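Continuing the series of single-chain predictions for the mutant panel. This is the parent chain; the variants come on the following pages.
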Amino acid sequence: MNVTTFLETLHGRVQHLHTTVSTDFAPLEAALLNFKPSPESWSMLECLEHLNRYSRYYNERLAQALAQPASRPSRAVSHSWLGKKSIATVRPENRKKQRTLARMNPNRSQLGKAVVEEFLQHQRQLLALLTSAKKADLNQKAIPVEFFRLLKLTIGDALEFVVAHQERHVQQAARVRQQLRLELSV
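Parent structure:
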């Protein structure tokens, strides 16, 4: 895929996530954001906190990789086998439940509205990273996989993985919000 198209598409997707969380979740009170349809499921805040934990890792690694001068910027993005597999696993269309690492699982956490603001800040950082990615070699293997750091994703794979993962869990939070609306209307 052409780099410009790839980055513009990701930018639009991240902007949509930022807008969705700003309009649908940020105005809600913390008690509503902590609503859980069942004890095992995540609240809206837990979905966003899970993403914050990943963003704390991946945004920093992406910033480091993008700060390195590229021998020449990519013209096209090609996905590695590991990248394709990682992205497919977290796509929102993939309804198969995935187990998360204990340190990334916010279930039963005491969370407040600061989680929403942190998420929005991470989105602003990601938008800036996508802008700086225009000058990078997106096919360079540079981003260690969070749970197994010996494996590395290309910069392009990592960018798409992060965005797809965020879309998955923001959609999950939206389903919890819809369940809350149903509960409140009864």
